[in-house]
Amino acid sequence: MKQRFQKRLLRFKNEKIRYKYFTFLIGLTIPPLFLLGFLSYNIAKDALLQNQMESTQNHLQTSSEVADLLFRNVINMERLISWNKDVHQQLKESAQAQGDEQNVLGESTTKRIQNLIASYLIDTQDIDSICLFDVQNHSVCYGNSNSTGIYGTGGVHGEISLNDWYQKSAKANGKAVFFGYNVLTGSGFGSTFSSVKLLKDPEQLFNPVTTGLLVINIKKSMFSRVFKESEDSSFVVLDASNDKVQAIYNYPPSFEIKDSLGKSTTETFAKLQKKGYLVSSDINQTTGWTFAQVTKENKLLKQSNRIGIVTASISLFIAFISLFFSFMVSGTIARPLLQLRNMAMDWTRNLWNSNEEPHSDDIGVIGRTFERITVENKELNERLISAQLKEREAELRALQAQIKPHFLYNTLDSMYWMAILQNNHDLAKMAVALSQSFKLSLNNGKDMILVSQELEHIQHYMTIQNMRYHNRFQYIEDVDPSLMNKEMLKLLLQPLVENAIYHGLEPKVGEGSIHVTGRTEDGWIVFTVKDDGVGIEDMNAIEQGYGLRNVRERLQLCYGNDSELNISSVVGEGTSVEIRFREDAKGE
Q: How far apart are CA 194 and CA 192, in angstroms?
């Protein structure tokens, strides 16, 4: 009975010590674990918001730069019209005809402006109408009559000088001024806005004389080419030059901005923020307008909320593992401590009974035991905390900043206008082709492109190559019209045309031709690029080349492994490259 009681008492003491250490380990591991999870979530959330805002700001700056190029295209068009000798002569004759009822400006002036724009390859897809006024306020207009109002029918309009927009243009002293509405119709909610330039006599540099007024109405749809469409964000263009901020353009059209407009952009943005929006903005250099991207904060925080859920799940899982190991470790620690305590009690009891001095070996054993237990406990906690930190670091490394894109449009635009001013039309034509080719290859960051745009890319590329090689190459295009509006992976055909020139036609003596065909065959889309060049002697070397290997890999990644790229060649006769993929394949 006495032995059974002693065993129960020993078991009770053993469990008591174990639970004490179990409670101690819980307090040592669980609170730091949840604190680490909380800090990790907030760090990830802040990093996500910061990266999103930086990415949005970079996108707005890029959009503003692209808009500057389109605005400068309008400004350069105004310069060409105002500097044209024939237009300038007609304006002078109209001014000298003061008192005569006959108006010098008329249909011939309209045709002259039309021919002038066409001869200099000016991109007019964003231009809706052009109106020219002489000093007597006679008008002549070209383009869409809906955006010219009463001025499109000609006649004298003396009241035009009383308008605010006319006064602002006069104060600009010949500099183009952009207005966020159509100045000719007076509508701020229409589909066009205006650029107004007061014309000066270019022969009177030191004594400027006003010869007329030029108004160009621009489609607001040009901004759809500037901004990258997004389901989670809205874009607005604001003009803060008046007493109240005016919304020039907003995307999507369903986004209501009118109720949030204030007397300044700061007040407008404050109203949007009260409605739960995050706002990023950038000032356009040409117009002074504000480009803004507006994003619902709860949409932006969806990803951070998912990170929070994942972080909480990981923390709970690690907490469960910690509880389990703490329970196991507490038993491992309790047993040697209990043995050590019993040994110390026995050693003390024997020492008390024998009245002997403690032996140095016994003291060394006790010290080493305590030291070993302390070191093991410390290493265990360090391993747990290190594992948790590495888990958090792996999550944070996944939040990378986006790469800011860079554009060559400014350089190409400058090259084009320098060539125009120097009457070097070949160089101007090459700059336009290179600019359009670059736009199509970027495609606003999208991988899919219309077949018609891919073929347009090839045409621009052939224009550049024919200027380099003195029109040695003939380009023949025979593509089924039903394919033109279908989407395909960009840069599939252009690299094949480039290979045909460098490996087939360039080594050939004399002229050569490239024939591009496109057909649908039993549910397959088939494109063929064929040349009559020197052919291929070493097919393996061509197959292993970077260009064809890149096209084949992108083709299979996008359209599946059943898509094909086949090459056939006869030395001295030419080469044919065929790519085919299923018509119903969704490019991913």
A: 7
